Amino acid sequence: MTTYAVPALVVVMSWIALDEVPGPLTIVGDVLCLAGVAIIRSRPRVPAPIDPEAAETAA
Asked: What pTM did the predictor assign?
C-alpha cells in the first residue's frame, strides 16, 4: 500500500523542504505513476504449476 503514497509524499516533501510549488506536469506525472502501480497491482498472481516429476526427483 505504501507504493501508492510515494509520488504524493515526494511532491509534498519537495513543497515543504524546497519550497517548490508543484506544477501541472508534476501532477500529471503523479497520476501516471499511480495509474501504473494500480495496473500492476490489479492483476491476480497466478502460482507456477507444480511439476509432479520434478517433485519426485527432488525428494
From this structure: 0.52
